[in-house]
Amino acid sequence: MKKIVVLLALLLLAGCQKEEKKPEADFDMFVFSFATDAANFSIKFTPGDSIYMKTSPVDYFYSVLTEEKTDSVYSIIKEINFAEYDTVYTNENIVDGASFKFYKAKNDTINWIYVYENKTPKKLYEIADKIIELQKGQRWTPFIGKQDFGNLDYIELPNPVN
Fold first, then answer.
1. Residue 124: predicted pLDDT
2. Within a 10 A sphere around the Cβ of 23, how many other Cβ atoms?
C-alpha cells in the first residue's frame, strides 16, 4: 500500500512540474522596415502568429509564424530598449546604403528608431539582422486589403509599376 501511495505521489509531482514561461508580446504592433537599392519591405508583427509584409504602397502579404518563431520575435523585440538609443541615426554623406526602422506601439505609446549610417550602436544592427533572418523561409500569401503599418517616415517603399 505504501508503495502505491509513494508511486502516486511521484506521478503527481512529475505531472505538476512548472511549465517554462513563454515570452509574451509587450506591444500592440511592431514594424520592422528595411530599405536598400535591391530590397524594400516592412514587416508588421502583432501579438499572435500572423505577420504582414508591405513591399509597395499597394502590395500586402501575410504569413503565419511557427510557435518557435513567434517566441523568437517576442524575445528579439524585447532586446530593444528604446530609451537607450537616439531616435534617428543618419549621415547625410551616405547616398546609397541600407536603412532600417524599428517602430513599436503599445497602447498610446509609440517608440521608434531609424538608422541610415554606419556609426549606429552595433546592437541595433544585430537585432535588425535577427529579424531579417527570421522572416526568411516564410511562405507569403497575397493579402487583399490594407494593414496599418504605423509611421513609415524615412522608409521609401517603391511605387507600384503601372
1. 95
2. 14
CATH 3.30.1560.10 is the classification of domain 23-142: yes
pTM of the model: 0.80
Check pLDDT > 60 for residue 128: yes
Any bridge partners for residue 104, and if so which? 30, 111
Which residue do the cell numbers 543618419 mark? 90
> 157 and 57 in contact (C-beta within 8 Å)?
yes
What is the grid cell recorded at 8? Answer: 502516486
DSSP symbol at 36: -
- The pLDDT of 134-147, averaged and rounded, is 88
* Mean model confidence pLDDT for the chain: 82
- What does the alpha-carbon distance between residue 72 and residue 62 come to, in Å, rounded to a whole number? 18
For CA atoms 146, 147, 153, 154, the dihedral sign is negative
pLDDT value for 109: 94
Domain ranges for the chain, please list them: 23-142
Rounded mean pLDDT, 13-30: 67
Environment class of 104 (CB within 10 Å of its CB; exposed 0-12, middle 13-18, buried 19+): buried
